[in-house]
Amino acid sequence: MSLITNLLVSFLIWSTYLSYAKCDVPCAARDVGIEGRSIVCVCNATYCDTISREIPERGKYVVYTSTFAGDRFKKSYGDIETNVNAREDDNDDDVDEDENGNYEGGEDGEIEQPVSILNRGAIRLYANRRFQVIEGFGGSVTDAASINWRKLSDGAQINFINTYFGKDGIEYNLIRVPIGGSDFSEYPYTYNEGPWQDGNLSNYSIVSEDIFFKLPMIKRALRAATSEIKITASTWSPPVWMKTNERITGYGQLKPEFYQAYADYHLLFLEEYSKAEVPIWAITTTNEPINGVAGAPFVRFNSLGWFPSQLARWVYNNLGPTIRQSRFNATKILAIDDQRYMLPVYIYGMEQEEPKAFDYIDGFAIHYYGNFAPASILTAIQNNYPDKILLSTEACEGPMPWDNEKVEIGSWQRANNYVTSILQDLNNYVVGWIDWNLCLSPTGGPNWADNFVDAPILVYEDSDEFIKQPMYYGMGHFSKFIPRGSRRIRSAQRSLLRVDNLAVITPQGTVVVVLQNKRERAIDLRIQIDWRRLISITLEPQSIKTIEIGV
Ligand SMILES: *[C@@H]1O[C@H](CO)[C@@H](O)[C@H](O)[C@H]1NC(C)=O
Ligand SMILES: *[C@@H]1O[C@H](CO)[C@@H](O)[C@H](O)[C@H]1NC(C)=O
Ligand SMILES: *[C@@H]1O[C@H](CO)[C@@H](O)[C@H](O)[C@H]1NC(C)=O
Ligand SMILES: *[C@@H]1O[C@H](CO)[C@@H](O)[C@H](O)[C@H]1NC(C)=O
Predict the structure, then answer these.
(1) Which of the four pLDDT bands, split at 50, 70 and 90, describes residue 219?
(2) pTM
(3) Topology of domain 60-133+488-549, per CATH?
(4) CB 135 within 8 A of CB 174
(5) Active site residue 104
(6) Annotation marks residue 193 as catalytic
């Protein structure tokens, strides 16, 4: 292209961008034709709905609403009301209350209107009571996700990346990537599979899945992103010759003679991805270590078992020193990477064996599939380890044996489950939330172990389109409006009716509140910003709302 055409094209793209900047492209809704399901939004090579975040001026607010009935990020605007008759009864600077203002969806406060009808809620915000700093939100670049993505045409691939990572999308800023294969691969594999007993890892190399699928997808995401993308990497299984059972799955742990080799296995991955210009922010200490121990009878995919004592010794003697003495010394080490209810078990066992292992650990990684255990476990852990972060690293719907439909297209219930979990986690000190596969096929694969599940985006190769399920919008209600560096603030329930919520203050100085109404009825809600100023809104039946307030 000549310089002139180049300039002309840039000008055209730029002017198009300017003229549409404030004008969101609406969801191309498709009725999935199943009773009880919501709509999905269809994207292709030339069309995909967009969303812009509008930062309100002081005194104003912007609302984004998604509903079971079919709204997706529907925008509305309002002015903060001032109650001139208010008495200064509870002051912002009054900080002698419980420091841990955080259970599921905000804490109890005194009830102002005990008679209040059960359709009326009240929440009081305390912008000066600040808790954890938010890292962000994201999804995982598995083999399955990247293989599906590459089945789309160039235009649809671009729309896909932008809808997750771009300025007009939901602006994800976290990614998780498997080190080698996971069950969401077309076949089980690891790096350095041969020769056997190769403790020096002389034959280590990344594979074609990295080169042709995962790395290209990640690099496109890095380029589209509006802020730094922080990548967390996890191993599912090492080469089987390192394992006591010499199999990819089942009951098996690391052979002691390969403890150092397995640490080096992680370091070499950091080298390889660094060479490919994909920096890794954090590694976890192996995906779901319980699967190769007590979970073995139920799990049929890539795993490595760790007893807590073994994990402590390996981190202290091998992984920790190896990473800290390398040029990747800033890489965070996130321990455990397993279900919520497993965390106390591992932490206790590791402490008993080698408390100094915790000097190498920057935080704990948590999975989604055991959330019958209360989220307050996380606050208890944070209180014991105030300098460590809690990061949710994996979540998906449909993985349980009793989930007879792996993919429930258009499910609003599944979006609700995500939102409930994010609200609980973040109200209990979690700093970020990473979804599992960014996309899957319409049957929830590929997965070599037949462990099919749901994903926020499904890819339809034949029609060159992808559909965005309610779960995508559930994620977006957080990721789009809670930028990195936001801090959770205290919110207190002031009504008999509890309304699940999360409140943060953003780096721009605005307050963002996420609200969930799981009921079939509308809720009238009063959000008291301080003793004089308030917002009155209605939460539609079965809705998720994000409100950004110019305080
Ligand atoms: C892409 O989607 C838009 C909006 O739904 C539609 O008008 C257009 O026909 C689609 N393009 C193709 C090639 O299907
Ligand atoms: C080294 O790895 C390659 C695959 O990356 C494999 O084909 C080859 O057999 C391995 N070499 C040995 C000596 O096992
Ligand atoms: C690793 O390499 C060193 C030096 O090349 C060699 O002496 C040693 O035997 C190798 N170890 C293994 C387990 O292959
Ligand atoms: C980390 O490594 C860099 C070189 O890559 C070095 O400059 C720095 O001092 C190291 N930091 C620590 C804490 O060892």
Answers:
(1) very high
(2) 0.93
(3) Immunoglobulin-like (2.60.40)
(4) yes
(5) no
(6) no
